[in-house]
Amino acid sequence: MNFIIAFGAILLSLGIFLIVAILFFSLLKYIKKKYYPNWKFPDYISVGYAEYLYKKYIKRERL
User: What is the pTM of this model?
Assistant: First the structure.
């Protein structure tokens, strides 16, 4: 019986964590939409970093 209670508590805590995470990221998206509608800074960072990794590991120049 203790196993069932522990399993239920784990599932409940996981569900509560997911709900809180969804609310948090929804709040971030709302703030971004309302106050920073044209903000593209993270996109530029991720694209630049992806290009850097591509040049470093995949497309090496032949010697």
Answer: 0.54
Q: Which two tokens stand for residue 55?
A: 């040049």
Distance, in Å, from the CA atom of 33 to the CA atom of 25, rounded to the nearest integer, reads 12
By the 10 Å C-beta count (0-12 exposed, 13-18 middle, 19+ buried), 44 is classed as exposed
Residue ranges of the domains in the chain? 2-58
Write the pLDDT tens digit of every residue in 39-55: 665 555 566 677 777 77
* Closest to 28 (Cα-Cα) out of 42, 45, 16: 42
In Å, how far are 17, 21, 44 from 8, measured between CA atoms?
A: 14, 20, 43
Residue among 60, 39, 57 at smallest CA distance from 49: 57
